[in-house]
Amino acid sequence: MATTVLVFHPHLADTSRVNARLLAELKASGASDVTVRDEYALYPDFRIDVKAEQAALERTDRIVLQFPFYWYSSPALLKQWEDEVFRPGWCYGGGHALDGKTLRLVVTTGSEAAKFQPDGAYKRTMDELLSPFEVVARRIGLTYEPPFLVQGCATIDEAGLDEVAKAYVKAIAG
Ligand SMILES: Cc1cc2nc3c(=O)[nH]c(=O)nc-3n(C[C@H](O)[C@H](O)[C@H](O)COP(=O)(O)O)c2cc1C
């Protein structure tokens, strides 16, 4: 099973601590059949190569979208990527390019999990906030797998980061 991890982090190479660590652990694992695409590095000017993105998705069985949570949503390039890559006639509206593949989100949040509860500070769960991705997946023929969440990134210590990095590698490459 080929897995492609599309990472949407505007500061992966400089300020990222958690996503950079997860990806370093994945690389160190030497996992075969896992390809990582750093989308902000590929398209710093937001000029997305739609054909290249579609080809990358066609080549894989498991699609992973990985991003830091920004304003209870994704960084901007991911939204634009969806708008441009998911074309009618290709993956919906008569197109079936992605049928039978899976989608898994990997999302890191600064705030801790307790805040994303009906009785928490934000009054909304992560499932609710991520639901547009689940509906999109269904609409374009993908099976939506439960997201891999890393929460409380603002305060996570090195031991905690070690633990989630190992769990991440198992989830993505195991
Ligand atoms: C512009 C911006 C918006 C953010 N919005 C949220 C948010 O809505 N909820 C949250 O929990 N964290 C938010 N954060 C914190 C990031 O999600 C967090 O720092 C990141 O996931 C940690 O991963 P990293 O070390 O790879 O950057 C935001 C950070 C930035 C820069």
What does this structure look like?
The chain is globular, with a radius of gyration of 16 Å. The longest helix has 16 residues, at 158-173. Strand 3, helix 4 and strand 4 (102-108) form a beta-alpha-beta unit. It contains 7 helices and 6 strands; from the N terminus they run E-H-E-H-H-E-H-E-H-H-E-E-H. With 174 residues, it is α/β, with parallel strands linked by helices. The chain has a single domain (3-173), classed as Flavodoxin domain (Rossmann fold, 3-Layer(aba) Sandwich). Strands 1, 2, 3, 4, 5 and 6 form a 6-stranded parallel beta sheet that branches. The mean pLDDT is 98. It has helices spanning 18-28, 39-42, 50-59, 76-85, 126-129, 131-139, 158-173; strands at 3-7, 34-38, 62-68, 102-108, 143-144, 148-150. Helices cover 37% and strands 17% of the residues. The chain starts with a strand and ends with a helix. Bound molecules: flavin mononucleotide. Residues 9, 16-20, 68-72, 108-111, 153 line the site of flavin mononucleotide (FMN). This is NAD(P)H-dependent oxidoreductase. Residues 1-170 form the Flavodoxin-like fold domain. Keywords: Oxidoreductase.
